[in-house]
Amino acid sequence: MPSTFHLLKPEDLKERLSQGKVQLVLDTRPVEIFAKGSLPGSLNLLWEDTCCKPQIKVAPVLHTPGYWGNLDEPALEKLAQTIGAFAGNEDEIVVVGSGHRDKGREGRIAWTLAYMGAQKVSLLDGAVEPLLDIAHGKHPGKQESKEAPSSHHGKFKLALDEKRRIKMPELKNLLQTQAQAINLVDTRSLPEFNGDSYDYQPRKGHIPGAILFPYDDMFSGKEKLSYIEKDQFLSKIAAVADKPTISYCEVGVRAALYAVLHEIYQGQVVRVYDGSIMEWGAHSELAMSGVQ
Q: Which residues form the signal peptide (predicted)?
């Protein structure tokens, strides 16, 4: 099956921008960074704005945007309307970020778009900052700078692709009945996996049976701006690539980037548990391994 996702080298994006061939660019960097400079006409889209509030009793800090990863379907409906002003489901959407330091936010947006029904999502393989001198220097990040072409108004239709996402009840059932038939990939750091960090989490540790693919390992080079090559990625998953795969992290952001790269390199759709360890740990009846 052809992948929905594609990696776009900086030089290729620069050329396409100069030729006016890019229809929609979504910049996933934080608002204050986006405001300092962005690609002409790009829209700022934050992954936090696509999430719901916790539906169970948790510490107040977990109600802060960025601390809870479950998608909010009304927010996705609103996002589909915004995208529909510029592109349809079959049009290419380019997603850009700042590389490793963004903690996977560009991957989360790319995955969210595919879950919503986008059929062609290109992810910049590198940081966007070196491209900001295109044409006439840096461009202020203004969302209103891009006008929607009338031919695309309302053309993006929300069509949730559930094979890309898994919710807590289904994951719980799978682990109870078919644990040996799936790969459960934890994309956090080793200290997080072992439960040695982040006291704000309801419980620390990892979901039983998970294997570790650290977020840091998804990037190459000293500055970690670009993703690892296909052969490197495949060598890391060689022992587990023959099973259906589910990924998670803390709030489903790093896990989403893993899912994007896995699909590009392996040709297999990975289901993302967007609630991840934050939601799982908040349910005291669910098993966890490591420090709790």
A: none
Q: Which long-range contacts (CB under 8 A, 24 or more apart) does 218-224 make?
A: 218/187, 218/257, 218/258, 218/261, 219/99, 219/100, 223/99, 223/100, 224/99, 224/100, 224/101
Q: Tell me the C-alpha to C-alpha distance, in Å, between residue 71 and each of 51, 93, 170, 244.
A: 4, 20, 16, 22
Res 1: pLDDT: 63
Residue 158 confidence (pLDDT): 97
Q: Is 38 helix (H, G, I), strand (E, B) or coil?
A: strand
Q: Tally DSSP H helices, then E strands, for the chain.
A: 9, 11
**Predicted structure pTM score:** 0.93
Tokens for 109?
Answer: 């947006």
Structural domain boundaries enclosing 181: 162-282
Output 64 or 290, whichever has higher pLDDT: 64
- Asked whether residue 48 is assigned to any structural domain, the reply reads yes
- Residue 102 sits in the same domain as residue 203: no
Q: Alpha-carbon distance 69 to 226, whole Å?
A: 25
3-state secondary structure of 95: strand
Residue 291 falls inside a structural domain: no
